[in-house]
């Protein structure tokens, strides 16, 4: 069952890879405050051996690489198509000292104590078994090595992610329209799986890490209008795309209308939306 769920989730990330490539630039811009906070917590210097896990389009590795050069950053994701996206985006003038390869959070194919810093932005909550993933992180880190994580904070603080789904749900469409096969609300993996206060800290501690520190970082998505917002969701979320494909024109315009209504507080005078997001960051030492 766990293996089936894991394969189902990875299949859905595989499908999502082209959309993540299309949105890569905007995504990097929206979550830049999270990236900057992670890099400053990581304490990188020339020679630091960095492993990025669940890297998706890889902009965090691209930002880290110049600081640690000539040492290479190892940029990994469980999904081959995502690794290809990260590699292709880097081919357009990115740093030369990045090695791209597949790796799963729960089984990192590296010897023990060979990495100084692990970065993982918005990845751990998608692992079926985050506890095992954190033990794997500790195994590959050198003693005293640093773990730097970001996960989504509570749903209520991430309206960029939840409002299109809420709009669909209020129309009786999609039954909550999960963003991935599971949203994490029921204890399974998903965007909010590690958002409850205390959950992440307890998991990190249980994996044997010390000097744990957690804080929150806000960020902002700016959408031209509700079509732009829905377009972003279609690219980032295969299940939202499947729901959208099942709607006729009248239902689609009703969904846009509901989204406009639900998001009225975020609306500017020109019809654009500035929608809040929030991450929980964590650092710890192996
Ligand atoms: C929300 S995206 C975040 C991507 C990237 N870290 C970022 O912040 O742009 C989640 C990423 O986790 C990857 N992923 C999901 N489950 C994974 C696992 N078990 N091991 C490694 N990567 C995984 C997905 O393929 C996807 O690229």
Helix-strand layout with pairing:
Elements: H1 2-30, H2 32-42, E1 50-52, H3 59-68, E2 73-77, H4 80-91, E3 98-102, E4 115-121, H5 130-140, E5 141-152, H6 159-170, H7 199-206, E6 210-223, H8 226-236, H9 238-245, H10 249-262, E7 273-285
Parallel strand pairs: 1-2, 1-4, 2-3, 4-5
Antiparallel strand pairs: 5-7, 6-7
The structure holds S-adenosylmethionine.
Descriptive notes:
By secondary structure, this protein is an alpha/beta fold. It has 10 helices and 7 strands. It has helices at 2-30, 32-42, 59-68, 80-91, 130-140, 159-170, 199-206, 226-236, 238-245, 249-262, and strands at 50-52, 73-77, 98-102, 115-121, 141-152, 210-223, 273-285. Strands 3-2-1-4-5-7-6 form a 7-stranded mixed sheet. Strand 2 (73-77), helix 4 (80-91) and strand 3 (98-102) form a beta-alpha-beta unit. The model is unreliable at 177-185 (pLDDT under 50). S-adenosylmethionine binds at residues 9, 13, 27, 53-57, 77-79, 82, 104-106, 121-123, 126-127.
Summary, kept brief:
The chain contains ten helices and seven strands. The protein has 286 residues and is α/β, with parallel strands linked by helices. Strands 3-2-1-4-5-7-6 form a seven-stranded mixed beta sheet.
Keywords:
286 residues; alpha/beta; Rossmann fold; 7-stranded mixed sheet; 10 helices; 44% helix; binds S-adenosylmethionine
Number of helices: 10
Bound molecules: S-adenosylmethionine
> What is the rounded Rg?
19 Å
What proportion of the residues form beta strands (DSSP E)?
Answer: 15-25%
Helix-strand pattern, N to C?
HHEHEHEEHEHHEHHHE
> Helix amount, in percent?
40-55%
Q: What would the average pLDDT be, to the nearest integer? A: 92
CATH topology: Rossmann fold
Number of strands: 7
Q: Shape from CA axes? A: globular
Strand order of the largest sheet: 3-2-1-4-5-7-6
Which class in CATH terms?
Alpha Beta
Supply the CATH architecture: 3-Layer(aba) Sandwich
Low-confidence residue ranges: 177-185
**Terminal Cα span:** 31 Å
Number of domains: 1
* Structural class based on helices, strands and sheet pairing: alpha/beta
The CATH H-level superfamily is Vaccinia Virus protein VP39
Major sheet, described briefly?
7 strands, mixed
